[in-house]
Amino acid sequence: MRTRLPMLALCAFGLATGARAQETHHHAMPHGATPAAFVASSDRSFAQLMDDAMAVMDHGMRIAPMNGRPDHDFVTMMLPHHQGAIDMARAVLLHTKDPELRNLALGIIAEQQNEINVMRAWLARHPDHKEKP
């Protein structure tokens, strides 16, 4: 069974608290359903945006192309995980005025996008990792 990394990401960001965090999990989406693309919109509450980001990230991690090669599988799972962090950071930017959290969110966006670029480049440089013999 895969580790539930999306929940760890949510906790690591510290963006949800206590009982409210328990109320906002995206478990209402049927397993295997494809969520709509994440759109950071001020028309949605922070909780709704976090649910959306988590649903997209969780789905992306579940459908990541796995081939049994640890290097490849790690990278393909981390791509949607990092995008989820970016989406969550965009959500908080819409809903906070706290300068420290805004700065943190902007840093997360920059660093996670850089890491996504590194992972995509790694996949392009390692075509031998596409299929397990």
Q: What distinguishing features does this structure have?
A:
single chain, mainly alpha, Ferritin, 5 helices, 0% strand, flat, disordered N terminus
Describe the structure in your own words.
- The chain has a domain at 73-126: Ferritin.
- It is built from 5 helices and no strands.
- The longest helix is centred in the C-terminal third of the chain and has 27 residues, at 99-125.
- By secondary structure, the protein is an all-alpha fold.
- The model is unreliable at 1-28 (pLDDT under 50).
The averaged pLDDT comes out at 81
Number of strands: 0
Q: Tell me what portion of residues adopts beta-strand conformation.
A: under 5%
Radius of gyration: 16 Å
CATH architecture of the domain at 73-126: Up-down Bundle
What would the CATH topology of the domain at 73-126 be? Answer: Ferritin
Cα-to-Cα separation, first versus last residue: 24 Å
Specify the CATH class of the domain at 73-126: Mainly Alpha
- Note the overall shape: flat
Helix and strand composition category: mainly alpha
The SSE order reads HHHHH
How is the biggest beta sheet arranged? Answer: none
What percent of the residues sit in helical stretches (DSSP H or I)?
Answer: 55-70%
Number of helices: 5
CATH evolutionary superfamily of the domain at 73-126: Ferritin, core subunit, four-helix bundle
Low-confidence runs of at least 5 consecutive residues = 1-28
Task: Give a nutshell description of this structure.
The chain is 64% helix and 0% strand. The chain has helices at 5-13, 18-23, 46-62, 70-95, 99-125.
